[in-house]
Amino acid sequence: MDKEKIYVFGCGYQGRTLELLIGTLVDNGIEMVIDVRSYASSWHRPELSKNNLSSSLRSAGIAYEHAGRSVGGKIKNVGFSAKIDQLSDMARRGNRMCLLCLESDETQCHRTSKLKPAFARRGVELVELVFAE
Fold first, then answer.
1. How many CB atoms lie within 10 A of CB 19?
2. Cβ(35)–Cβ(100) below 8 Å
3. How many angstroms separate the CA atoms of 131 and 133, rounded?
4. How far apart are CA 72 and CA 66, in angstroms?
């Protein structure tokens, strides 16, 4: 990666264990997870629901924020531009954050279709994390 560029990272947890997810975040120096799921709950994977995920991340030294209302992919967003501005400013200040969603294939997710272009307009590159599986 180019040291001159400003980055925000992205990843999808589909098909991955919580341990692999957290390990990948830690290995990449991620300090904060921004949950971009419209609804931060999972019937099939309760360990990845908002409260459980937040607790597990906190134990690993990673902050958590659910931002699905403003930047989620399945609902009408409230404050989309303001949230992208805020996250871009955080990235410029050196915060290493990862936008988390369910979809593991970023080409099928709003991370690529909606969020990536919004960050690019602000001079921030959204890069997908690579899982060591």
1. 10
2. yes
3. 6
4. 9
The structure's pTM equals: 0.96
Q: Which amino acid is at 5?
A: K
Among 92, 93, 114, 95, residue whose Cα is nearest residue 36:
114
| DSSP structure class, residue 54 | H
Residues recorded for the chain = 133
* Mean pLDDT, residues 41-69: 97
Convert the pLDDT of each residue in 68-95 to its tens digit: 999 999 999 999 999 999 999 999 999 9
CA distance 113 to 85: 17
Q: How far apart are CA 9 and CA 97, in angstroms?
A: 6
Q: What structural domains does the chain harbor? A: 7-128 (3.90.190.10)
pLDDT tens readout for residues 110-124: 999 999 999 999 999
Kindly state the DSSP code that residue 130 receives in the 8-state scheme.
P
**Is residue 80 exposed (0-12), middle (13-18) or buried (19+ Cβ within 10 Å)?**
middle
